[in-house]
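Researcher: Here's a chain I'd like modeled. Treat it as a single chain, no partners, no ligands.
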Amino acid sequence: MTFKLKIFSVLISFTMIQSIFYSCSNEDSENDIDNSVVYQCQAMPVVQSAAPLASYGYSLNYSAASNLKVYNRNLYLGADVQNLLMASDLTQIITLVDSLYTDIINNEFVTRAAGIAREISELQPDVIVLQEAELIRTEQPSDFLTNYSSDATCEEIDFITTLTDALSAHSLTYHIAVKKENADIEITDMGKDIRITDYDVILVKDGFNYYGEISSDFTDQFSVDFGALYTGFPVVNVTRSYSSIMVEKPGVLDVPVRIVNTHLEMADSVIRQNQAAELAGFINSRNENIILAADLNSDPLITIPPYPYDISFAYQTLAVDSSLFDAFTVSSNEQNTCCLDILTDAAEIPEVRIDHILYKTNGSNTISVEGTMVTGIDPLEMISSSDNSYLLWPSDHAGLAAGFIIQ
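Model: Modeled as a single isolated chain. Structure tokens:
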């Protein structure tokens, strides 16, 4: 179940709103502020396709025996919704809502997707595991004054469609094996409603078989009572989940493997720990070969908990309680993966290791790590914006790639 958060910027004039939020709206409506204007639902005002980028030189040095290659990436919305959910007063909410959409536009995902597709085209993973695979929809004028008579449905950008299109430009075909919906949040500034629907996604390369999806929302979820800030606002649950699918390929990967994806809570370490424990229980209940590719929001080496990352409890719960091995520890390639907070700043460096690829066998098979690679943290990997006026990191998270021999 998902929840919508309706927040409005009462102090922002409609004229100012129109100048900031201009790309997408409903057509004729009896509630239009100016009935002489026909609003058109149109795409976000950034380049809608990006040419394949030149080779960078990614390589995992796989041997011929490697039979499963996994890539993990948090795609990054392009704006910090977490700050909005942590807002302490209405004035702060107004400021954050007003800048959110502009940040998403300026951190243009179509351009960033070209960089991620370049990584994937060179690494050739069999399975792609993604977090923050967003769907952005809008509605204009806002229907706040008519008690939210409809949800925002004007699709501005679908991260998964954008990425698979970018992969197609490299002649790569991946199938959506799992698309698990998480939080569904709609915000408004009175002039325009912005709806952000979050997904965790698993893509499987053409030629591989996939089956047996098991997905579930976590029992413990982070929530915000916005009614304490403004009368009539709801309690909002920020839904998070785990999702999984079995993969195999006769003659290549004859031993089936369950790929598991999750993005644990960032804002509350107790909830994050409870989610990790629930996921560990699921993994322990499966007599299967498991590869967990995830954003755990937990660094195994941090011993003092600076907000918002706990020490190592969530990671340790999964690694120890579920007897999971860390592919990057095994391969002596432990590198920080997050966060490149300003996507346009080449001086940014990741400070924590919160993205992981962990694995375990069913006891009858063996899994060995052939190679690992961390991508997206070298300034040379930054991509030119659509107007060539600035450079962008592909995401605020690094990409992880690991190759395995499973037999």
